[in-house]
């Protein structure tokens, strides 16, 4: 069928009501958002953002309401989609922006693709990877993996991807979203090593929309975290309190979930796997810790400072 591109959509969307089908690859995926309120009678008040791209550039795509439980888990980073009968809306200005792995990629930020059950009823098809043709010109998923030795030089809020061997995982903890609200964020601390430094990655992992992975992070698993943000305490000793925290677009993967993921082709991931083959499992097991209370960043040494 006659296809359109994201670039053509941006130029012609105001003058059209019906749009030609789109062929795009998912590059980023946000956590699932629940926006239900007691007074609003919506059956499935869910929403999820994706960043999708073709040869012309990258654009946001929003999955709405009952399409979320149906499609959210199938639309992985790297998935190729054929979209028909979708709507185009002006972009929501306050949404979070993932950092693209390819800094050269053009971003269409004024509009977004809206996928709904009706008005119009969107038709979504997933194209299996083996049927994707090179002549479609779809971009590959690119990552920004860093090693632990590179972390100390990175600025606050820098976006990166990491892989490491888990040596510590804390219990799940809760933090209030707002001072007096009843909603909580769920998170846990983890340490992961990659052999490039004596220090581990210190990871603050919030429960994303992957409960099956979040609950099963344990020592000795290979952990991949994407779209992590660097957090530095710029006031005291900057190197001692550097850690990474998840963002709205973070994805986490553990041993058993890596097969077929686009990052398995990345050079730094391959280097890490080579390093793990040189390690003695029993030696590493002795250094692992699980559970317990983990106060971080550490409180000051004396009470006056505190």
Automatic annotation (TrEMBL):
Domain of life: Eukaryota
Matches recorded under SUPFAM superfamilies: Nucleic acid-binding proteins (SSF50249)
InterPro entries the record matches: NA-bd_OB-fold, RADX
Record Gene3D superfamilies: Nucleic acid-binding proteins (2.40.50.140)
GO molecular function: single-stranded DNA binding
Matching Pfam families: RADX (PF17659)
Name listed for the protein in its UniProt record: RADX protein
Name of the gene: Radx_1
């Amino acid at each position: 069928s006659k296809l359109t591109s994201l670039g053509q959509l941006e130029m012609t969307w105001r003058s059209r009501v019906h749009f030609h089908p789109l062929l795009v690859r998912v590059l980023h995926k946000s956590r699932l958002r629940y926006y239900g309120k007691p007074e609003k009678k919506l059956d499935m008040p869910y929403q999820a953002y994706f960043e999708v791209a073709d040869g012309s550039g990258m654009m946001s795509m929003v999955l709405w309401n009952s399409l979320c439980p149906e499609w959210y888990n199938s639309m992985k980073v790297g998935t190729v989609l054929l979209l028909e009968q979708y709507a185009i809306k002006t972009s929501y200005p306050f949404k979070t922006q993932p950092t693209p792995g390819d800094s050269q990629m053009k971003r269409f930020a004024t509009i977004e693709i809206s996928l709904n059950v009706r008005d119009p009823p969107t038709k979504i098809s997933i194209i299996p990877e083996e049927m994707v043709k090179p002549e479609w010109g779809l971009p590959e998923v690119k990552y920004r993996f860093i090693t632990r030795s590179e972390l100390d030089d990175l600025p606050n809020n820098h976006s990166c991807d990491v892989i490491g061997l888990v040596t510590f995982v804390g219990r799940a903890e809760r933090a209030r979203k707002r001072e007096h609200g009843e909603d909580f964020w769920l998170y846990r601390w983890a340490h992961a090593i990659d052999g490039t430094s004596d220090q581990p990655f210190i990871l603050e992992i919030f429960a994303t929309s992957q409960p099956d992975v979040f609950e099963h992070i344990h020592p000795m698993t290979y952990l991949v975290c994407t779209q992590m943000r660097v957090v530095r305490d710029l006031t005291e000793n900057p190197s001692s309190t550097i850690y990474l925290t998840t963002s709205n677009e973070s994805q986490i993967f553990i041993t058993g979930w890596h097969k077929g993921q686009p990052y398995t082709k990345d050079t730094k991931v391959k280097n890490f796997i080579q390093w793990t083959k040189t390690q003695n499992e029993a030696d590493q097991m002795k250094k692992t810790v699980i559970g317990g209370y983990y106060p971080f960043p550490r409180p000051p040494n004396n009470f006056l400072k505190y």
